[in-house]
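Two records follow; treat each independently.
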Amino acid sequence: MAKTITLPGLIDPHVHLRDPGQTHKEDFFTGTSASLAGGYTTVMDMPNNAEPIISLERLEAKIAGAKSKAVSDIGFHFGTLGDNFEEFPKVIDKVMGLKIYMNVTTGNFKIDADRLIEIYKAWPGSKPILLHAEDDVSDIVFKTLAAVPKQTHICHVSSEAELTFVMKAKEKGLPITCGVTPHHLFLTNKDADRLGAYGHMKPYLKTAKDVQFLWDHLDAIDVIESDHAPHTRAEKDSAEPPFGVPGIETCLPLMLTAEQEGKLNRQQLIDRLHANPARIFNVTVDDTTVVTVDMSEYELVNEKLLTKAGWTPFAGQRVVGKVTNVTLHGAEAFKDGQVIVQPGSGTLLP
C-alpha cells in the first residue's frame, strides 16, 4: 500500500478567483474546489477583480457570491488606489488585509508610490498591508515602513534583489514578511522561453541564479503562496496574453517533491504552507481540518485539474503528493478527486 501522510489544512493568502466579473476564467466554486484538491482549506482572494474591490458595496457583493459558492474557507483582501480612505473603517472587520499594487498587473490597478505613506497612515488597526512590489520600489517601501511601521507582507518575491531587501528590512526590525510562489521556485526565464504565453506572468520568471538564491535563503521566506491566477487557453493563445498562471493544485506536490529531493524539511514546508500564514493573517485552523496525501509518484495532467482554466505550466512533470482526502471542520469535503460537499459549505472569514 502506498504511503500516506497527514497535514494540517493549508492556507493560501494569495489567490485570484476572478469572481465576480471574469467567471469564464474561474469562479468561487471552481476556485475553492481546486483549493481543496491542492490541500488548501483556507484561501484569501485578491481585490483586482474586473471592477476592483475598493468600496464596501463591491466587497459585500463579492462576499455574497462566495457565500453561495465556496467549498473551502475563504477571506478577502480589500484594494486601494489611494483615494478610498473613507471606505477603510467600513470594511476593516470584513477583510483579511489591504492589498496595494505598485506595478502594472492584471486589472487597471496601480498605486503611485508617493501615496504609500498616506495609505499606511489611513489603514486602521493591525491587519496586514500586502504589497505587490518589485525591485524598483523597494526604497519607498523601506521609507514608508520606517515612518509608519505597520505589518507588511511582500507578495511573490522573485529575485535576489527583492529577497535581499526583505532580509535587510527584517534585520532592522521592521514588521515585514514575504511570500514566494512555486513558479518562481521551480521555473526560470529559460522555462518562460519554452512555455511562451503559458509562462507569461508578473513578476516575470527570473534567472537560475535568482531561483537558487531563494532556495538558499528559505529561512527568510515566510510563506509559499500560489498566486493562483487562472486564464483560459484562448486568452493565453491570443495576441496579447494576460499575466498569470494557475497554481493552487500544484503547489503542494511540487513542495513535497522538493522535500524528497532534500531542498527543505517537513517542518519548513508546514511552516510556510500553514503555520506562518495562519499567524500573519490571524487564521485559526481547528484540529478537525486535515489533509491526507498519497506520497506515490504521479504525473501532473491538465485534464485532471479542477480549476476552470484547465492547464498548468507544470503539466507532464513527475511529482509526489496527491491529495486524496480533505476533512474540513470535521466533515469530509474532498475525496478521490471529487468535491463531496455542496456549494456554499465553506466558511467566510474573518
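The next record belongs to a different protein.
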Amino acid sequence: MHPVVHHPVLTKLSDLFDNTYFASQLASILASFSPHDGVCLRIDAVVCASDRPESNISKVATSNDKSLPLGWLSVENNQNLTTTPSQVTSLTSLKSPASSKFDLQSIQGYPANSQSASKDGCDNVRHKTVSGLRPSKSSAIAVETEESDSDPDTGSRLRPSNVRIEPSVRQFHSDTRFPQRKRPRKDAATPALQPSSVDKFIAGIWRQVHSPVTLSVSFPDRRPEFNLGTGVSETVFRAVNGLCKKYCDQSRSSRALEIIVQAYWVECYEARIASIRLECPHYTNAEARMAALKEACSTLTWHEKELRNRMAVWRGYKEIKDSGGWASLIFAGSGVYRICKYRIGFDNGLMPRLRHIASSLEVAADTLHPGWRDLLRVVSQNGPCRYSGHPHEWVTVDTGPALPLGTTYSHLVLPNGFNYQFVDDCVIDQNVFGGNDPRRELGIDPNICQLCKEKQTDDVVSNQCSCFPALFGGVRYPPPVQLYNTTNGKNNGVIARCEFDRGTAIAEFVGLVTRGIDGVDVMMGGTPERPYQVFQGQMGNFTRFINHSCRPNTQFQKFYWRGIERILVVSRGVAAGSEITVDYSDSYWRKLRKNCLCGETGCRFANQLETYPAT
C-alpha cells in the first residue's frame, strides 16, 4: 500500500468523517498509476446547493456548487505541497468562479501567513487538529535537545515580566477539541480483539498495585460502636463504610498471607524430598516424594488426593513468584487461583512476561505500598524496600533494576545536576502574579461545568460533574503509568501499565504557572489578553516526559474545573503496555534541527535535518 494512504492529513479526515473505506479505495486507484507518473492528490471542499446522492458526486458540478481547493499531497514524495495563488485561480476556474487562497495548512488550523497571528504570538485561527501542541511564531531556531520534551531545560532563568509575551521561543498550545468516543459499527468486517486471560491477569496485577488497598499483618479487633435500631444517619453510615473497608483490607491481607505460605510450602516440600534422599540413599525419587507427602498429610489431616489437588495450584503460585517476584503474587488478586488451577498461559508466554515486568512491579509496590514486604515476615522472607520516594523518580529498564531519574541525564552537563520536583498541582509564581491565579476565568460560573452544565465541587458526595471523574470530583487513584528508558534514542518515556479508554483523562499537565520565559519549552494557556505559561523545567509530574509521535494516542485538552483552566492529557485509546505519546505539532518541529524518532509509518519529520542548509 502506498505511504501516502497513511498520511496524517488523510488519516484525520477519515477519522473525522468516520470513513473507513477511503484508504482502501485510494490505494486501489494509486495502484493503477505508473511509478514514474508525477501523481498528486488534490483535496477540495465543495459547497453544494442541495443534498445529492453519493453516486452523483463524481458528476460535473452544477453552477450553484462552489469548489474551494485546500491543498495538494505529492504521491511521489509523500509531502505537502502548498497551493500558490496562481494554482488556486486555475483550480477554481475548472468548476466555479469562486476563489480562495487556502492551503493545506489552513485545514490544520495554522495561519497561512504571519499576519494572521496575534500580537501576543497566539494564532487567531481556531485549531482543528486532534494534536495538542502549537508553538507560537518564532524567527529563532531552537537549540538541539533530546527527542522527548523530557530533557531538562538548562542555561535559562525565569524572567517574569508584566508586559505581553513576545513570540521569541517555541511554545506549546493546548487543543480544545475533545476526542469523541468511537461508535461501534454494526457492519464491521472484523470483530474487535478481546484481551487474553494472560493480558487480564497481568492488568489485574497492575490495578491492584495502583489501588488504595492497605496490606497489614496486624488485625485489630474492631467492633461496631453504633446501633441501627434508630436508623442509619450519615455518621453511622460513614462508620459502617469504614468498617467494611477495614475488613475488606483485612480479608485481602489474609488472602495474600495464605498464598505466600502456600508458595513457600512448595519450596519446603522440594527441600524435604532432597533431605529424605540424603537420609535414605536407597530411596528412589518417587519414594522420597511419597514419604514427604505422607508426612504433610499427617500434619495437615488431609487425604493424599486432596493435598495433591491443592499442591497443583500451590505449585503455580511458586512459579509465578519465581518469575515475577513476591510482588506479582501478592498483588495478583483473586484471579490467580483460576490461572494456577487451569494453568492458563503457563506454556504460552505468561512466565516470560512476568520476568519482563518483575523489576517494574517491585518499583510500584515499594513506592505505593511501602509496608507490603511486612507480609513476608510470616515466612522470614521480608527485607527492606529497594525503592523509595515518588513512583516516578525511578526509570524502569529492560535489562535490570530500575535507575534513579537523575542518572538517566548524566550525559547532560548541568550546573547543579538534574533536579526535578514532583508536584500534584500547579504552583503559581508569586513574583509574577502575586496572590492571583491567572488560570481563573472571570466570565464563567465556577460552580457549573462548561461541558455538561452540571454542578462542580471538590466534595465527592455533592459533585455532579462526571466529565473527568478520575481527576476531578471523584476518588483519585495513582495513575498506572511509569517512566521507562526507550531503546530508540529518545531517552525516557511514559508507559501505560493499564488500558486507558478513549476520552479518559490520564493526568493534568502541571508545573510552575508563570509568564515571560524565553528559550525553553512551555505550555501556553489563557487568552491573548491574559496569557500564562506552564513551565516544567524544575517541577511538575510525569507529563513532562511524554514523547512526541506523528500518530499519537493522547492529546492535550483544556477543561475548566471550578472556574480554573486546566490542561489535561486525554486518551485517544491507549493500550496496556504501550508508550503514551502526543503530537507536538508541525510548527513545533519546523523550529528544530533534528529528525523525529517516532518511527511511525508516514512520519512527517523523519528527514527534518535535510530541510536545513549545511553550516
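Discussion point: The radius of gyration is 30 Å. How would you locate this feature using only the C-alpha cell line?
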